[in-house]
Protein: Transposase
Amino acid sequence: MTQKVCIERVEVRGAAPYLGMCVDTVGREMPVWSDNPQVVLDWLCDAWRCRYNQLRTRRMKWNRDRSELVPLGAVVDSRTDRQVREQCSWLASVPAMVLQSPNRIENTDWWAANKRRKTLKKQHRYPGMMPRFKSHKTDPMFVCWYNKGANAVFHRLNKHHGVVVISGQNSKEHSLPGQGCRYEIRIRVRLSQEIRPYTSIGVHPKAGYLVFVNDPLPIPRKRTGLETGIDRGCVHSLALSDGSFIDLPKNRLEKIDREIRRRQKAQSRRVRQSGLSAKEYVRGGHHSNRYMQEQKRISRLYRQAHNIIDDFQQQVSRRLVSKYDLIVLEDLNLTGMGRKAKPAPDPLHPGRFLPNGQAAKRGLNHALRSASMGGIRQKLEYKTKRAYASSLLLVNPAYTSQQCSQCGHTCRENRESQAVFHCTQCGLMLNADTNAAINILQRGHEVLISGMGEAGRGNTAPDVRGEHIAENAAVSKHEPTASH
Ligand SMILES: [Zn+2]
Structure:
């Protein structure tokens, strides 16, 4: 969990930091000092990345024919922090709390990436690339440990402004005469909330922000005794079992979507007119500057849409968690739902295919993706764990939209249209999504009752483990409650 703040201004005070040796045009080596804030931050980012990549050379990978493990780098760098400080001039004056941080971060990055690949492989999904070296093309950044006030100390100046001070020193032989050796980098930041205790900071000078890494706050709430089932869908993003609906800001999203489509059409026209394939056009360097500008604009639009959806989900999940003690969702297989339709080979003409509804499925998949229903579940899982007396339950989604919530009659004809549910047995007439949500809540109750009947799974028992631990109901997929 992090708190992100904007960088307003950077100052370098005290001595000018020693940046290392530099080769000039004639080929002589010259020492370089600078007190230009931008240069100093770039230097720290480069130094941090350099140390990170030095540590990464020690990692092993399988060789081409997967017969033996070989090191990732051509040269294995096994020097310690102290040795590199002596041998690499550009690392000589880096603050210790910055130079040490890659040791742990490289390790966590590496194992997290490996674990992610393993999980994806197990799910038969594309596992992605092996983690490699950090490139200069990625967002330049560095991390500085706080280490109980050793460095990266935050001071609040007033309500909306604060300053983070990173201090360091040049060694004796690298300090300029009459300047002393200590330097301070003061990063002014803009605040919108109280900064909680943190363990480290990450500085992203190019993107213009700084993050404090700290523990997430528990969500304050009281027991309300309310329960809800939620049906996620394309028409209404969320339908609650009490008959209310929560919708994405569709107009804003559609506007962005239209804009993206318009620009993408123009882009593909540019490619088509060049007479090359899309790959050749971009990779072969035949593209115009305008093409790349447009590409950036399109990705900005995608980001905008993503931000709108993410913000919506954060707000809604927070509201749901503080209102309801029990939230029941259907356990949807979203990757399965988002697949293409199966191809249907034509038995009379080998090599040809019969219509399989892919065009319609493509539209549905797009709608599914743009509703991005996975996010809300993820956020609810995360937030119910952090809130007192709040739990999330996942139930089997089969036939929730065809079953009558009053008499339990299940058949296809019950669903009169997309929106209307009309039971053929008892004549119940209801919004189809609301009906499904009520079914989901009922299934949640069934699961809880059967769970208690089995062995008293300990989930619905009053939590004895303390205030802030969520009683995670029979979900137990993600956090098997060990209270029995
Ligand atoms: Zn009925």
